[in-house]
Specification:
Elements lengths: L1 E5 L6 H11 L3 E3 L3 H8 L17 H16 L2 E5 L5 H13 L4 E7 L2 H9 L8 H5 L1 H15 L1 E4 L5 H13 L1
Parallel strand pairs: 1-3, 1-4, 2-3, 4-5
Helix pairs in contact: 1-8, 3-4
């Protein structure tokens, strides 16, 4: 199974994914961003499309990597990865379904003010224009398809540990 943690920057995906993995027996964290980073290392580089998710190879490589890891290890993959383009999510989820891999899709949500504050006050990354630029696309995706497609966990007033416990309880039930 895959427990996919979606949501925009500052929602708590990375921190929560580690905590979910610790609470969910036989699970591992797989950050699909690493697939994008591998594609970014190709020289000469791929066309500059502004985001590695726009490169057509990224989505099937995420599916194939997840499938291969699960074939090898079994268990559950916890995948913290923002996907705000519905077409991309459909491609990934359909690819996983073709391999009979069940997906529990969660969105870690927080209000815009909270997200902005978390991004600006991030002690590790510091303020980030790139992360701030994704707030409006996230809000649009949330309004149009994302929240209808996933189980929404509002992290505005939750700690990452509380969010992780809710996700694990939901997955186990």
């Amino acid at each position: 199974m895959i427990v996919w943690l979606n949501g925009t920057h500052g929602a708590g995906k990375t921190t929560t994914s580690v905590l979910v993995q610790q609470l969910l027996p036989d699970s591992r964290v797989f950050d699909a961003e690493k697939v994008g980073e591998a594609l970014m290392d190709i020289r000469p580089g791929l066309p500059d499309l502004g985001n590695f998710q726009h490169w057509p190879p990224w989505r099937p490589l995420v599916v194939e990597t997840a499938r291969r890891v699960l074939d090898y290890t079994g268990g559950t993959l916890v995948m913290p990865m923002t996907v705000l383009v519905e077409e991309y999510w459909r491609e990934i989820s359909a690819g996983l379904a073709q391999h009979s891999i069940p997906v529990r899709h969660f969105v870690l949500h927080a209000d815009q003010e909270t997200l902005r504050g978390r991004i600006m006050g991030d002690p590790d990354m510091g303020p980030s224009a790139f992360r701030l630029e994704h707030l409006e696309p996230y809000a649009e995706a949330a309004r149009t398809w994302l929240h209808a497609d996933a189980e929404v966990i509002d992290t505005t007033c939750l700690t990452p540990a509380e969010a992780a416990r809710r996700i694990v309880e939901t997955v186990k039930n």
